[in-house]
Design brief:
Length: 250
Protein backbone atom coordinates (compact mmCIF):
# COMPACT_ATOMS: atom_id res chain seq x y z
CA UNK A 1 0.00 0.00 0.00
CA UNK A 2 1.31 3.46 -0.89
CA UNK A 3 2.12 5.96 1.84
CA UNK A 4 -0.85 8.10 0.79
CA UNK A 5 -3.29 5.20 0.78
CA UNK A 6 -2.08 4.21 4.24
CA UNK A 7 -2.79 7.78 5.35
CA UNK A 8 -6.33 7.46 4.00
CA UNK A 9 -6.84 4.14 5.80
CA UNK A 10 -5.47 5.52 9.06
CA UNK A 11 -7.70 8.62 8.88
CA UNK A 12 -10.89 6.75 8.10
CA UNK A 13 -10.25 3.88 10.47
CA UNK A 14 -10.28 6.43 13.28
CA UNK A 15 -13.24 8.28 11.81
CA UNK A 16 -15.31 5.33 10.54
CA UNK A 17 -18.01 5.42 13.21
CA UNK A 18 -18.24 9.22 13.60
CA UNK A 19 -18.30 9.60 9.81
CA UNK A 20 -21.07 7.02 9.50
CA UNK A 21 -23.14 8.74 12.18
CA UNK A 22 -22.86 12.33 10.90
CA UNK A 23 -26.36 13.43 9.80
CA UNK A 24 -24.98 15.60 6.98
CA UNK A 25 -23.87 12.49 5.09
CA UNK A 26 -27.50 11.42 4.69
CA UNK A 27 -29.02 14.91 4.41
CA UNK A 28 -32.38 14.53 2.67
CA UNK A 29 -32.27 17.16 -0.06
CA UNK A 30 -28.64 16.42 -0.98
CA UNK A 31 -29.38 12.70 -1.19
CA UNK A 32 -32.44 13.35 -3.36
CA UNK A 33 -30.32 15.30 -5.86
CA UNK A 34 -27.71 12.53 -5.84
CA UNK A 35 -30.25 9.76 -6.45
CA UNK A 36 -31.82 11.80 -9.25
CA UNK A 37 -28.40 12.16 -10.90
CA UNK A 38 -27.76 8.41 -10.66
CA UNK A 39 -31.26 7.68 -12.05
CA UNK A 40 -31.42 4.10 -10.70
CA UNK A 41 -33.96 1.67 -12.12
CA UNK A 42 -35.05 -1.78 -10.86
CA UNK A 43 -32.91 -3.60 -13.43
CA UNK A 44 -29.65 -1.71 -12.80
CA UNK A 45 -26.38 -3.10 -11.44
CA UNK A 46 -24.57 -0.24 -9.67
CA UNK A 47 -21.08 0.21 -8.21
CA UNK A 48 -20.32 2.81 -5.53
CA UNK A 49 -16.57 3.53 -5.48
CA UNK A 50 -14.97 4.66 -2.21
CA UNK A 51 -18.34 3.88 -0.65
CA UNK A 52 -17.35 4.71 2.93
CA UNK A 53 -19.99 3.52 5.43
CA UNK A 54 -22.42 2.59 2.67
CA UNK A 55 -24.85 5.49 3.01
CA UNK A 56 -25.25 6.12 -0.71
CA UNK A 57 -24.98 2.43 -1.66
CA UNK A 58 -27.76 1.43 0.73
CA UNK A 59 -29.98 4.22 -0.56
CA UNK A 60 -29.34 3.22 -4.18
CA UNK A 61 -30.11 -0.40 -3.30
CA UNK A 62 -33.69 0.62 -2.55
CA UNK A 63 -34.12 1.51 -6.24
CA UNK A 64 -31.79 -0.88 -8.12
CA UNK A 65 -31.40 -4.59 -8.81
CA UNK A 66 -27.98 -4.86 -7.16
CA UNK A 67 -25.40 -2.48 -5.65
CA UNK A 68 -21.74 -3.18 -4.92
CA UNK A 69 -19.68 -0.94 -2.65
CA UNK A 70 -15.89 -0.83 -2.54
CA UNK A 71 -13.63 1.07 -0.16
CA UNK A 72 -9.95 0.92 0.71
CA UNK A 73 -10.62 1.13 4.48
CA UNK A 74 -11.83 -2.13 6.09
CA UNK A 75 -13.35 -0.21 9.02
CA UNK A 76 -15.57 1.67 6.59
CA UNK A 77 -16.73 -1.57 4.98
CA UNK A 78 -17.55 -2.86 8.47
CA UNK A 79 -19.74 0.20 8.97
CA UNK A 80 -21.41 -0.42 5.60
CA UNK A 81 -22.12 -4.03 6.54
CA UNK A 82 -23.63 -2.89 9.84
CA UNK A 83 -25.82 -0.38 7.98
CA UNK A 84 -27.01 -3.11 5.61
CA UNK A 85 -27.71 -5.46 8.54
CA UNK A 86 -29.99 -2.83 10.08
CA UNK A 87 -32.16 -2.87 6.94
CA UNK A 88 -34.13 -5.50 5.05
CA UNK A 89 -31.95 -5.04 1.96
CA UNK A 90 -30.62 -8.24 0.33
CA UNK A 91 -29.09 -6.82 -2.85
CA UNK A 92 -25.74 -5.45 -1.68
CA UNK A 93 -22.18 -6.76 -1.76
CA UNK A 94 -19.09 -5.13 -0.22
CA UNK A 95 -15.43 -5.19 -1.23
CA UNK A 96 -12.20 -3.86 0.25
CA UNK A 97 -10.16 -2.44 -2.61
CA UNK A 98 -8.47 0.48 -4.33
CA UNK A 99 -10.36 2.92 -6.57
CA UNK A 100 -7.31 3.02 -8.85
CA UNK A 101 -7.48 -0.73 -9.56
CA UNK A 102 -11.08 -1.88 -9.36
CA UNK A 103 -11.36 -5.70 -9.16
CA UNK A 104 -14.13 -5.96 -11.76
CA UNK A 105 -14.34 -6.90 -15.42
CA UNK A 106 -14.78 -4.27 -18.12
CA UNK A 107 -18.38 -3.14 -18.56
CA UNK A 108 -19.63 -4.86 -15.38
CA UNK A 109 -22.00 -2.12 -14.22
CA UNK A 110 -24.85 0.01 -15.56
CA UNK A 111 -23.95 2.92 -13.27
CA UNK A 112 -20.76 3.76 -11.36
CA UNK A 113 -20.78 6.42 -8.65
CA UNK A 114 -18.44 7.98 -6.16
CA UNK A 115 -19.24 10.56 -3.49
CA UNK A 116 -16.90 12.78 -1.44
CA UNK A 117 -13.84 10.82 -2.54
CA UNK A 118 -11.93 12.54 -5.35
CA UNK A 119 -10.35 15.04 -2.95
CA UNK A 120 -8.63 12.11 -1.22
CA UNK A 121 -7.07 10.79 -4.43
CA UNK A 122 -3.64 11.58 -5.84
CA UNK A 123 -4.96 11.07 -9.37
CA UNK A 124 -8.74 11.46 -9.64
CA UNK A 125 -8.51 11.41 -13.44
CA UNK A 126 -7.09 7.87 -13.26
CA UNK A 127 -9.90 6.84 -10.92
CA UNK A 128 -12.45 8.25 -13.34
CA UNK A 129 -10.91 6.17 -16.13
CA UNK A 130 -11.25 3.08 -13.93
CA UNK A 131 -14.89 3.96 -13.32
CA UNK A 132 -15.36 4.28 -17.08
CA UNK A 133 -13.66 0.92 -17.68
CA UNK A 134 -16.04 -1.01 -15.42
CA UNK A 135 -19.13 0.86 -16.67
CA UNK A 136 -20.91 -0.57 -19.72
CA UNK A 137 -21.08 1.45 -22.91
CA UNK A 138 -24.01 3.82 -22.61
CA UNK A 139 -24.02 3.50 -18.82
CA UNK A 140 -23.89 6.36 -16.35
CA UNK A 141 -20.95 7.65 -14.28
CA UNK A 142 -21.66 10.08 -11.44
CA UNK A 143 -19.16 12.01 -9.29
CA UNK A 144 -20.23 14.03 -6.26
CA UNK A 145 -17.59 16.07 -4.47
CA UNK A 146 -16.73 19.43 -2.96
CA UNK A 147 -15.71 21.89 -5.68
CA UNK A 148 -14.29 25.20 -4.44
CA UNK A 149 -14.11 28.15 -6.79
CA UNK A 150 -10.78 28.83 -8.53
CA UNK A 151 -10.03 31.83 -6.30
CA UNK A 152 -10.75 29.93 -3.05
CA UNK A 153 -9.28 26.53 -4.01
CA UNK A 154 -5.91 27.06 -2.32
CA UNK A 155 -7.38 28.27 0.99
CA UNK A 156 -10.05 25.58 0.90
CA UNK A 157 -7.39 22.88 0.48
CA UNK A 158 -5.36 24.36 3.35
CA UNK A 159 -8.42 24.22 5.60
CA UNK A 160 -9.17 20.63 4.64
CA UNK A 161 -5.60 19.46 5.21
CA UNK A 162 -5.66 20.96 8.69
CA UNK A 163 -8.55 18.71 9.64
CA UNK A 164 -7.76 15.70 7.44
CA UNK A 165 -4.22 14.67 6.53
CA UNK A 166 -5.53 12.42 3.73
CA UNK A 167 -6.92 15.38 1.76
CA UNK A 168 -5.06 16.00 -1.50
CA UNK A 169 -6.85 18.74 -3.43
CA UNK A 170 -10.49 19.48 -4.19
CA UNK A 171 -11.08 20.02 -7.89
CA UNK A 172 -12.96 23.06 -9.08
CA UNK A 173 -16.12 22.31 -11.04
CA UNK A 174 -14.37 23.17 -14.29
CA UNK A 175 -11.46 20.87 -13.45
CA UNK A 176 -13.90 18.06 -12.69
CA UNK A 177 -15.77 18.61 -15.95
CA UNK A 178 -12.45 18.74 -17.83
CA UNK A 179 -11.27 15.31 -16.62
CA UNK A 180 -14.62 13.93 -17.75
CA UNK A 181 -14.11 15.45 -21.21
CA UNK A 182 -10.53 14.14 -21.28
CA UNK A 183 -11.89 10.67 -20.51
CA UNK A 184 -14.17 11.05 -23.54
CA UNK A 185 -17.32 10.88 -21.46
CA UNK A 186 -20.49 12.66 -22.60
CA UNK A 187 -21.64 15.11 -19.94
CA UNK A 188 -25.36 14.80 -19.28
CA UNK A 189 -25.93 16.63 -15.98
CA UNK A 190 -24.33 19.24 -13.76
CA UNK A 191 -26.01 20.01 -10.44
CA UNK A 192 -24.95 20.87 -6.90
CA UNK A 193 -25.83 21.83 -3.37
CA UNK A 194 -24.36 23.45 -0.26
CA UNK A 195 -23.96 21.17 2.73
CA UNK A 196 -23.97 22.90 6.11
CA UNK A 197 -21.59 21.57 8.75
CA UNK A 198 -20.45 22.42 12.27
CA UNK A 199 -16.66 22.48 12.62
CA UNK A 200 -16.71 20.81 16.04
CA UNK A 201 -18.12 17.61 14.51
CA UNK A 202 -15.52 17.32 11.75
CA UNK A 203 -12.09 17.49 13.33
CA UNK A 204 -9.95 15.91 16.03
CA UNK A 205 -9.42 17.97 19.17
CA UNK A 206 -5.72 18.48 18.45
CA UNK A 207 -6.52 20.02 15.05
CA UNK A 208 -9.09 22.48 16.35
CA UNK A 209 -6.86 25.39 17.48
CA UNK A 210 -5.32 25.87 14.02
CA UNK A 211 -8.70 25.46 12.34
CA UNK A 212 -10.41 27.93 14.67
CA UNK A 213 -7.65 30.47 14.05
CA UNK A 214 -8.04 30.08 10.29
CA UNK A 215 -11.83 30.35 10.39
CA UNK A 216 -11.79 33.27 12.86
CA UNK A 217 -9.41 35.19 10.62
CA UNK A 218 -11.58 34.50 7.58
CA UNK A 219 -14.79 35.50 9.36
CA UNK A 220 -13.22 38.71 10.72
CA UNK A 221 -11.99 39.70 7.26
CA UNK A 222 -15.42 39.33 5.70
CA UNK A 223 -13.71 38.17 2.50
CA UNK A 224 -14.76 34.50 2.61
CA UNK A 225 -11.33 33.49 1.31
CA UNK A 226 -12.00 29.84 2.16
CA UNK A 227 -15.20 29.97 0.13
CA UNK A 228 -17.41 28.21 2.66
CA UNK A 229 -19.46 31.12 4.10
CA UNK A 230 -18.09 30.51 7.60
CA UNK A 231 -19.86 32.17 10.52
CA UNK A 232 -20.19 32.00 14.29
CA UNK A 233 -23.43 30.56 15.63
CA UNK A 234 -24.47 29.46 19.10
CA UNK A 235 -22.81 26.04 19.08
CA UNK A 236 -19.61 27.00 17.27
CA UNK A 237 -18.40 27.72 13.74
CA UNK A 238 -20.71 26.72 10.92
CA UNK A 239 -19.83 26.62 7.24
CA UNK A 240 -20.99 25.16 3.92
CA UNK A 241 -19.25 22.62 1.73
CA UNK A 242 -19.73 23.67 -1.92
CA UNK A 243 -20.70 20.36 -3.54
CA UNK A 244 -21.12 19.61 -7.25
CA UNK A 245 -22.70 16.64 -9.00
CA UNK A 246 -21.53 15.75 -12.49
CA UNK A 247 -23.02 12.86 -14.47
CA UNK A 248 -21.70 11.48 -17.74
CA UNK A 249 -22.69 8.79 -20.20
CA UNK A 250 -19.94 6.24 -20.79
Amino acid sequence: MSEHNQRVVDQFTRWAKPFADLPIHAETSAMALTIAACAPTPDMNILDVACGPGILACTLAQHACHVSGIDITPAMIAQAQAREAATSLKNLKWYVGDAMALPFEDGSFDCVTTRYSFHHMRNPAASLLEMKRVCREGGRIVVIDATPSPDTQSAYDEMERLRDASHTSALTLEQLRRIGADAELREILVDGYRLEACLDTLADAEDMPALITMFDTDIASGADQIGVDARHVGDGIHFHFPVSIVAWES
